[in-house]
Structure formats: C-alpha cells, structure tokens
Amino acid sequence: MSPNTLLDPVHSRYLVLGSGIAGLQFALLAARNGTVRIVTKKESSESNTNYAQGGIAAAVSPLDEFDLHVQDTLTAGAGLCREDIVRKMVEAGPRLIDRLLEHGVRFSREDGSPGAPFTLGREGGHSRRRVLHCRDMTGREIEQRLLDACRTHPNITLEEHHIGLELIRGDQIGLEQDSAARVVGAVVLDRRTLDCRAYLADAVVLATGGCGKVYAYTSNPDIATGDGLAMAYRAGAELRNLEFVQFHPTCLYHPDAKSFLISEAVRGEGAVLINHREERFMTRYHPQADLAPRDIVARSIDQEMKNSGDPCAYLDLRHLPREAVLARFPNLQEHCARFGIDLAGEPVPVVPAAHYMCGGVAVDGDGRSTLPGLYVVGETACTGVHGANRLASNSLLEAVYFADRVATAAAQEPEQDLGTHSLLDPRMLGAGDARQAPDVMVLEHDWDLVRRVMWDYVGIVRDRERLDLALGRLRAIRKTVEEQYRGSLVSPDVAELRNLGLVAELIVLCARSRRESRGLHYTLDYPNLLDEASETVIRRGMSLEGESCWEPESGYHD
Q1: pTM of the predicted model as reported, rounded to 2 decimal places
Q2: 346 vs 196, 317, 422, CA distance in Å?
Q3: Looking at the chain, which terminus has fewer C-beta neighbours within 10 angstroms, N or C?
Q4: Where residue 139 falls among pLDDT bands split at 50, 70, 90?
C-alpha cells in the first residue's frame, strides 16, 4: 500500500478546526475581514454543541443581576475562575443573545410569541432562572442557525470529513527565526480518500471540542477525542488544569443507550434523585440538594451506588404535571420511550458520565494561546471562566463570547508570505515509504483499554495508587499506538487513538500533581482544600511531579 498522498497546499486568511458553536460564530465574524476555511471531522453538525440540551446562561431577566451570575460562576469554579474575564463575559451576555436572535435562533418564550419574555430555566448552581433554551434541543437549534449562515456566506468554505493531524509551525516550512514558533496552518487528512494537505492561514483557530471519549462512559459524541488538545501540546502550546473533567450526574442507564444525557434542566424544573428504595438522598450531601453544583451531585450519586451496590440511581418526575413535562422535554421523552421508559411516569435510571473538559489549551482574554498565530475557543480552551468546575449552561455563553474576542484579535494578525517556502517534512505524517494498513484488532483493543483504564482509575474519586497504575498502562498503550502511527498508513482511527492516548496521559499527570481536592478533582490522598488556589500547567518537555509525558524516540518536532 502506498503512503498517504500529499496534495498541494491551500491558503486562507483564517483556518478553523471544528464546527461547534464557537468555531461557527468565529467564522461568521471573521468572514467580514477575509476568507475563512472551516475543517470538520464528520458532518458539520456533529459536535458537542449539537448535543447540548440545557441552554445558554445569561442574565436577561429583570429579576436577575450580573453580580449574581458572576458570583454563581465563581462559587462553582472553586477559586480558579478569573473574575475579570467572568465579569466581562456575563456583562456581554444580553448582547450576545441578541446576536443569536439575529441569526434566527428561536429561544422558547412564555406564550410562544416573538415579543414575549423568555422562558428561563434554572440549573444546578444558579441562584436565579437565567437559562435560555429551545425546549430541550438548544444546541441543535443554535448550531443549525449558525451553519445555515456559514453555508451561504461567500467568504466561508466548509469542508466536512476532514481531520487535523498536526499543527504547522513556521520553523517547519523555513520561516525566519522570529516566526519559528508561529502556527501557520495544519496538516489535514481527508477521511474518505486518505489524502493529506497543508492548510495554511494567517491565524489558526482550534475549536475541536472536548475529549469525553477518553472515558468508557460519556455524554459526548464519538468525535470528542481531544484532537485539539493533543495537536496543541505536540506543537508546544501550554495546557492547564486537565485534571478537571466534569462528569454529568445524569446520563441514561440502559444497555442499549449510548450514554444519552438527561439534561440538568430536568432537575431545574423539579425532578429529584432517588435510590432504589425511592428515598431522596441529595439532602444528605448538600444544602441545595438536587440543585447542588454538578461535582457534588456526581460524587453523591457515585457514593450512593458504592454504598448500596446498585448500578444506578434514579430521576423521579412523577410528582410533576405530566403535560408540563412532555411540553418542556419532548426530545427527552421521545428518546426514553425508545428504551421503554416513560420520562414523566416512572423513575428514570441514571449514572454519571464524562461530560466536559474544564481545563484545556491556555489562552488569554482574547483567546490567544502561548504560540503566536494560534487561537483556541470553546471546550478546547482554558479561558479562566470555568475554573475547577463549570457552572451549568455557561459553556455556550463562553463559546460565543470568546468567538467574538478572537475574531477581533485575529483581525490584527499580519498577512503571512507562505507561498515561497518549502513545505512539510514527510515525518509529519509518520515514518516509512511504503506503509501497511494499521492492525484493526490492535487498534480496537487499545481504544477500549484506554477508555477502561481512565474510567476505572481516573474517575470521579481518585487516589495516587490508581493514578500510578493508570500512568503505567497508558504509556504502554501509547508506545504501541505510536508504532502503528509511524509504521502504517495514517488513518482517522489511528490519528484519533493517538490523540486519545496522549490526552489521557496528560490528564493523569495533571491529576497526580494536584495535592488537594478542589472542584471536579477529588482525591482520597488529599481530601482537603488548600488555602491558596493554583493552576496546573503542562507543556511539552515540562516535568510535573518529577515526570514528563512519555515521548516517542523520534518525532517531527524534535
């Protein structure tokens, strides 16, 4: 089998990797100043945004205040939020909602008419009703409206079924020393033809979403393999706080359900958690009971399951008016019914599942990473908004806020003269001239093993012994995967598994270095909170706790 074909490079003013709300909103804003190319792994609508049921938090009610939204965010973030950025985002909320309305997003209103007040929901950690929603399909509605606008914009090109393999830095294409570390594009693989191409740009925006598939049980779609985190790390960018993985407390527990999320908005409307004896248990764990922050609720369910030996807990809506439940959550009711469960009429079995990465690629208030030319938005970024625990429904607001900030900042990037430079060391695609197809059986085994190791040893409750076991096993897996990547035809499956294994190890290294329990990171070795909050910082070649990430013997950055 011949190597992957390397096609001629293409250039645009802006390159966006990913097609969730953050990437799409950036593209629409940036397209005012130049050409934008959006590269996305599968269909353009396949993203974590599309699966966001709950809504977008914004203080738009006369009964709400910016200060209250800020304080709720800071409280959930357990000392690691950047208050200045949180405040700017919250105060921009009404303006950002107006922009979504201009794109045609139809948020639910009290009597269904365009001028009526919004029907606002309340979720865990919020002191007021401030969650705008489109019934229980908010993410899908927002994404579709932004996609429609992008598809008709003359300056935007959308390429589906393409996956980024590596970021391209200036030193790899012969740029002068002052541009050596600058990110000038990405090597992209066509998933269908397996052809590779260099996509060059004056500014590169990572909007690749999260990494939920690193765990065996997750609410995320299959595309959430941490590609942006891995590419940024390999390019030399700084990452922060990867130990803070948010587990959604209530994913549907059923052998045939693929980790379908039961929105936190259900508890916001009055649903309660019960055990197999039909006892409400959240009152034993937190004053806010079923509306406690997500980390508290997830740990509480985990503890109840361990105490009882039960495989799940239950969400109970039977005390709520049936008609109101069906009107508010039609998508949830329909999905549960496929598995023989009546959302409004019986307890719904639920378990926690990996949901959201609160850490990510470190960025400043304008979305700039530590590498010039590289911006990061959405779940891939660590902006300082979420801290150690994301407040429910703040993620969509963060996405549109930083899309706006990045569009303004990236417009100032100088145009790069990239056409006269030699392109791409072949080692960027691995090694060897006539590589074979990857071993499918090895790939499937290692994929499952990474996810099982993370679920068993790096879950909701952690300790040093289990983290050490995870680290050893993940490094052994990664060595096998690197051999596959460098010795076989580059395929999407190999690329995703390579990224998944790297991100898993980075999460473990960050978790081992935090000697306290804060927010989403709870360890039996250090159950208390330190007086001073600090960030976990990791980048290529950096040692944490005396250990750095395992690296292959040779690589294109060496």
Answers
A1: 0.91
A2: 51, 7, 65
A3: C
A4: confident
